[in-house]
Amino acid sequence: MSVVVAQEKKPLIRFDIKKCAFCKICELSCSKYHYKKFGDSISRITIIRKGPLMFKCHICTRCEKRFCITACPTKALSYKGGNIVVDPKLCNSCGDCVKACPFHGIRLHPETKLPLICDLCDGDPSCVKDCPKGALSLVWLPEVRK
Amino acid sequence: MMKYSGYKGKVLAINLTTKKTSSIEITDEFARKYLGGNGFAVRYIFDMVDPRMDAFDATNVVAMMTGPFQGINSPTAGKYYMATKSPLTNGYFDSVSGGFIGAQIKYAGYDGFLITGKADKPTYLFVEDGKVEFRPAEKLWGRLTGETQEMIKEEVGDPNLCVSAIGPAGENLVRYACVITEYRAAGRGGVGAVLGSKKLKAVAVRGSGTNEVADPEAYEAWMQWYKEEAKKVPGLAVGLPTYGTPALVASIGKMLGAMGSYNHKTEFFQNWENISGERLKKEFWDKDTACPACPIACSKVFSAKSGKWKGAISEGPEYETIYSLGSMCGIDDLGAIIKGDSLCDEWGMDTVSYGVAVSFIMEAYEKQLITRENTDGVEFKFGNDDAMIAYIEKTAKREGIGNLIAEGSLRAARVIGGGSERFAIQVKGLEIPGHSARALRGMSLGYATATRGGSHHDPRPTGEYAGASDRKAVEGKAAWVIGTQQMTTIGDSLVNCHFLERLLGFTLTQKWVDMINPVTGFGYTLEELTTVAERILDLERSFNVRTGIRRKDDTLPRRFLEEPIPEGPSQGMHTDEPTLNRMLDEFYVIKGWDPKTGIPTKEKLIRMGLEDVADRLAKEGISC
Lengths: 146, 624
Fold this sequence. Notes:
- The structure holds two protein chains of two kinds.
- By secondary structure, chain A is an alpha+beta fold.
- Helices cover 18% and strands 29% of the residues of chain A.
- In chain A, a hairpin with a 6-residue loop joins strand 6 and strand 7.
């Protein structure tokens, strides 16, 4: 049985498919914030287009099941303060977390091979700030605990 | 490592005949001299292509280029640039399209590709970081552009892969076949047909690298400046984001009476309201879309919710397509225009040239220069939306009179004869878009002198619409046109959208310089940037004069020179031959081109740092 714990809340970057224009500015903002470089391969958010009207947003959803943490063979991943945190000392870059995430919210950095997972940019997500169409927003949902 | 930012320092030369690739170094000096996109491509094509060869010869080169801005988040940088010797105009031709593939080329470690040779069987290129694969494309041959992209994404296993593809029109060498990336087109001039002649179905690119700017702090300051200033420009802040380019139907079609209709028998379309941007937004709009990195999002997905063409859906149509498939063909059903727009994209051909070629056939039919015997019994009358739609596929497959439409209006006129060349709405073979050569004096001179011919992206009409230059004036127009051509050339070299003109200037200004320097680190002055533009334009012209282009070719369709606009707000306007000649004289003098022949003078070429080009022209006996 799930119990809602009112005082604990979980962040979510909400995606509005109607507003998204597929400009990918979020991807470039993300890479710029984290690495001071522009590139979609080092972005923690990805927008996919599957037709004239079908867009998808791939980003860590902070799901309840935390498939990535369960899948990690070296216990390099943990959940802290609303984020999935990577311990670079423990991570062996096996990519099991990437495969385990049903939301396609994780990719490996092309050079360091460490998992790239949304960390909300210290609480003020740059993708949300820079989205020209207001398609992304940061919301806080009640944390569900089993 | 290059001293300047925004470059990867190498261009990949790809030979489809030998299936070999080689890397060409971009030096600091080369980057500074030619900037990117347009500048890089014209230098390579001038050096590599014999201009007298047929465009479908294996030795022709297709340049797929980026500028320093691709891959960064600068507004409108989400584009890529293609150039070749055009099968439509026989001259140098470039076509710029939205698409994240430009960024991916950078991320893969290149500033661009130079594709030459001819594959022995259908092929597509898969470029991933430093690796190039020539992949079989027999399964893709004959397929539409949408499914081609999807099949390649599936084969590679990456839904986010960037693919630029041609459709059956390109395979069948329709002279204005385009290249489609996502839902955007490198539309004009037949780059897709040249790829088809090379049996190259698509180019797919994926890169894991990055792009950076020279001065992040100055760049950030510029981005902030852009955000603040763009809010104050109505076109960028309201017009384009709300309606997209279809907003122009009301301002050009109604207010100015300058939207070519019925193959330019008139420029006032009585039913303009039926095809207006306002109606499109109200009744057909589904969502806004954007080219990558663009906050303007002027593109829209529209669909027909009811009526004869219910279910038709397209990203677009843009204003130009509403003109070419709509008012030019006497069609006022937006559903038909949406259907035609999506079919042209899927079969892979330019909507402007197709629509204007169809409207030409409609007038020839009306004048009984062709009859139902020529059209398989189809009543090819103005307003026949079924014919306009049905002949997209037939043109792509070159069936029946589609085979003639596929040649473009100039070549079709030469076949039909009977004086029809008079009303073939083209310059140098390129069909003229929806910006009037009669109601805008700058466009009279602009189309006549543009490298590409009837293109509104060499000269620009926007400044005359905005009143920055008096649209009726003859005095000073040559300098104005040269200024807009310099601006578009720089835009095409950065590979940015020309819509920045509304903020940065319709001609080159310090604001353009201020955008470029933080990204590249060139420290350009306005004077040096202007020289870069002139250098590129002189190279384009030098390529074209080697194909035989001279002053006599810098002209307009007879209809425009001899028939004033018959009705509406711009009634009576046109540029007659003496007036055009007066402006041309002034134009060549300012350019430093010989007024008798239109050939760039040796002195001008040397001043632009193009001594080798001057030598080449002299050696071929075409210098003056």
